[in-house]
Amino acid sequence: MALLKVTDLSVNYGVIQAVKKVNFEVNTGEIVTLIGANGAGKTTILKTISGLLHPSAGTITYEDQEIQKQKSQKIVAAGISQVPEGRHIFPGLTVVENLQMGAFLRKDRDGVKADYEMVFERFPVLKERRNQDAATLSGGEQQMLAMGRALMAKPKLILLDEPSMGLAPIFIQEIFDIIQVIQQQGTTVLLIEQNAAKALAIADRGYVLQTGNILLSGTGKELLANDDVQKAYLGG
Ligand code: ATP
Question: What is the pTM of this model?
Answer without folding.
Answer: 0.92
